[in-house]
Sequence to fold (824 residues):
Amino acid sequence: MTTRKPSPGKLLYAQSGGVTAVINATASAVISEARAHRIEVLAARNGILGVLNDDLLDTASLSTADVRALMHTPGGAFGSCRLKLKSLAEDRDKYVRLLETFKKHDIRYFLYNGGNDSADTALKVSALAEEFDYSLVCIGVPKTIDNDLAVTDSCPGFGSAAKYTAVSVRECALDVAAMAETSTRVFVYEVMGRHAGWLAAAAGLAARRDGDAPQVILFPEVAYDEDAFLAKVDAVVKSNGYCVVVASEGIRTASGDFVADAGGGTDSFGHTQLGGVAPYLAGRVQAVLKHKVHWAMPDYMQRSARHLASETDLAHARAVGRKAVQYALKGLNATMPVIHRVRDTPYRWTVRPAPLSDIANAEKTMPAEFISADGYGITEAARRYLQPLIRGEAYPPYGRNGLPKYLQLHFD
Amino acid sequence: MTTRKPSPGKLLYAQSGGVTAVINATASAVISEARAHRIEVLAARNGILGVLNDDLLDTASLSTADVRALMHTPGGAFGSCRLKLKSLAEDRDKYVRLLETFKKHDIRYFLYNGGNDSADTALKVSALAEEFDYSLVCIGVPKTIDNDLAVTDSCPGFGSAAKYTAVSVRECALDVAAMAETSTRVFVYEVMGRHAGWLAAAAGLAARRDGDAPQVILFPEVAYDEDAFLAKVDAVVKSNGYCVVVASEGIRTASGDFVADAGGGTDSFGHTQLGGVAPYLAGRVQAVLKHKVHWAMPDYMQRSARHLASETDLAHARAVGRKAVQYALKGLNATMPVIHRVRDTPYRWTVRPAPLSDIANAEKTMPAEFISADGYGITEAARRYLQPLIRGEAYPPYGRNGLPKYLQLHFD
Fold:
């Protein structure tokens, strides 16, 4: 009989859901930390899909320079995916295929980098591995610009999107201020955030003092009332000369209808596909108030803008990657490294493990005390929370050609 | 009888038309250079409108720190305007009012910072001053992100918008590449440029090699053919997995209709108000090709993004400001300091005077040899021209709060 030579096993890393400006920084930290522990890292192509299809990349093929370049490269270098596995009962065959891929490559550590859906998947994989008596440590690694994960104080990816949003809104506001006398009086800027207004709130950081732009913020947490909205915009234009509106893609009427349902359709997570709130609101302002209006829809720009990443956010993204590997090696199964805020000012934070079961499928919307009484702005409490997350500039290196030196992996 | 004490007279600076990330850098250079020559500088509030209404700001009220801060502040610090004066015959009363304001404040130098419409206004003012025998030197100072001014090799403001566009498109392309397998396959990015495709062409710099995003660029110089466009996009998706489209707001069908005429209306320059090409094209792609699509409309973001200014562009903007003052003091009436390109590589440039009459109302579209044979890309000649303009990063200073330290002037 043969005896199987004892092996620490390999680590599998996969990216899931919408990418961010710093998810590759987490990947970079995972690979570096694993290499330090002499653990081989395989990366799934296009997230969980690559595991289902046994389409894995051996990251040993990445040079130290590549791993360093991942740190400042936006997007999802190994490919991400929108594919939510259903319950163990419904999708058992798929879960079993995952396990087969794990066994085939002697994968003993599974790090799934995503949001609450991914945390749920990692949790189910862990349960099945136990059922099949296959020793596997499953770790969820946080990532989302929506900042809507439970337990963690903030989500890697959010701080950079928040900084980009606050800076862009301040810049556009200066533009509108210059043009308002003879041209554009109302500017509408749409931000991502399906059910939580965190990014919309971050836009509020662009205002230095009361009355500064953005003068009107529309949150998914507050029911959209057209008459009240138009009245508010008109009042701001009359008193201030112009009005900057920041609207979340997820705003809904009191009856619960998405204002942007024009967008229509649903993605493979079953979420309604949004987008188009800005042109809709702009149209209403122009038609009813007769003010000249401009609008912007940054869409993917806001989650890919590595050129304006937050240093704090980058530090978070790297830390959860390092810790995820350490937790895996310690056997802290079914956990997620989360950001714990020790103090607002000076901002102090640490990373600690939290059970995936507390995070899976949960969604953290903004506390009511973060939204001003009139529903159109943020409070001091919100500023205290948000401020540290956009702090510091972490620029990517640029080439002589004036473009950032981003890494683009080419798979055969 | 009294004798009027001889005076060198004052200099009036005004901003016109759409603002840019670096027009205030030109203003800063004008003020610094004039101060060096002991010339008082008045700035018109909201461009020519401030001259008509005798609403002028004495820039002596700006501290040296303010003038330095102008160098890295986007928007139009003194206010701009969209107000085109008609012929001397039609708008004679207005031109006479301008002259009255000049006389009242002993303004002997008029620097109008704008595009070809502003060059035309400066030219007419100069003619009227001559007719009234009022000694006045009129200088046009170039500015426009559209890069469509005649004579000058490039326009201050364009290089920064071009850099922002190329970097943003590359970032969004990495995002789409990561999502394409299970989600978005086509991404449409709309750029400004009413009649000239310079910014659309700049997006082409995001591509490192053939086949890189953006795979499809739609120029105003090329008639839009929906069938050919959709066939091209579909072919790229089939071969590459995803397709990034960059579309100019000004694209038109063979019959000359603006694709985005949904936007409707006209601004006070009489230009058709555009916008909305991206959602339109995205809708066609989704409806006909059934590919999942996302789209972005940066609008004012692309001309206000001082956080990603081009160092070359900033140098141009400062140089034309300095030279404008020097030309004024030399009495080079009815001229504009223009960028003269000495060499592509290494890039060398100088500033020299050109007659306003060669620039007023002219419009420079892209040479045919800058657009690839199939009409969807840029040529090597275009790259040679565009490349130096986005070179170098000129970041604004940031505060501890993670936001740029932009100057916001408060007028009473």
User: Anything to note?
Assistant: The first strand of chain A starts at residue 10 and ends at 15. Residues 178 and 184 of chain A are 9 Å apart (CA to CA).
